[in-house]
Fold this protein.
Amino acid sequence: MPATPQPAPPRPPAVEPDILDYLSIGLGWLIPGAGHVAIGQTTRGIIFAVVIHGLFAAGMLVGGVRSINPPDQAIWSYTQFMAGWPMIVSNYIQKQYAPQIQQLESDAKPPKIPVDDVEGRRKFLADHSLLAYSPELKDVGAVYCGIAGMLNLLVMFDVLVRISGGRAAADDDKAPAEGGTA
Amino acid sequence: MTFLSHALAYTPFIDSLQATWPDASAYWMWLLAPLVIAISLVYRGTKVRHLADLPKAASWLALQIVLVMAGAAAALYGIHYFFIRAV
């Protein structure tokens, strides 16, 4: 007599998130990765925190304050603000430097970066570090910070799915293991 | 000495990397690698159930992204070559 297949275990019912769960989503926006830590996914949250903070910091290291709120690509500003506190702090700092940059750029005879003269370019950049400008580096910096924000948005959605039981319902056919209680 | 003057002039997180490394923009494409790794880690981090599977899953996704981007770049270069430069 052939063995009858075992019926799949019943899926847990979807749980209605309460106000504290929604607060974990907000916390996840403010501090990337903290939402997962708040719902018990500590290791996962730490990984997200390290990656998103690291990507945002790398963007600022590459492009400087000009990576934030690029005037010609406003859409990146919205995505950058999804990164939470790093963008809030960076935005504040950028506002401090904005008049200085504008002053440098709006001089009657703004200094130009020597293009062909390598040594002249090096000396110029040493003297005018705020004017050090490369469209490629600024764009890469803006993209780093913007993608960090979009990744944080994805992480926030993941928190929402987990607190509402969606991720557990999708994963319950596998054995529980280390690294969290999905 | 020039390097020292650049290092002293450079303020991290404020100035562009170009302030301390004037030729950095020539290597901008290498800066895509950390981006691909970060996207792969976070995306797969939301999908995998066991975090022990994350390195393998993220590596595979990163490889896929790089291959697709390289394919797209080759296709665009081909279009550019045959329809713009050759015609």
